[in-house]
């Protein structure tokens, strides 16, 4: 197992955005959901054996937001 790196995550951003758009229709809100998931990923680093394991982990972070970070980000107006 290796530590997840920035290129590993960057390659999955389009996948995360697609899944976020299935959760909320608005593109900006979807991007904020992705941002919240990536913030949690940075705070809670993980070791993963494969790219598919990284994807699964990030999608879990996207779907499950126990502290409500995504909701707070959605309330901040865009400039």
Automatic annotation (TrEMBL):
Domain (PhyR sigma2) ranges: 11-61
BP terms from Gene Ontology: DNA-templated transcription initiation
Cross-referenced Pfam families: PhyR_sigma2
Coiled coil stretches, renumbered: none
Name by which UniProt lists this protein: PhyR sigma2 domain-containing protein
InterPro entries: PhyR_sigma2 (IPR053866), RNA_pol_sigma_r2 (IPR013325)
Tree of life domain: Bacteria
GO molecular function terms noted in the UniProt entry: DNA-binding transcription factor activity
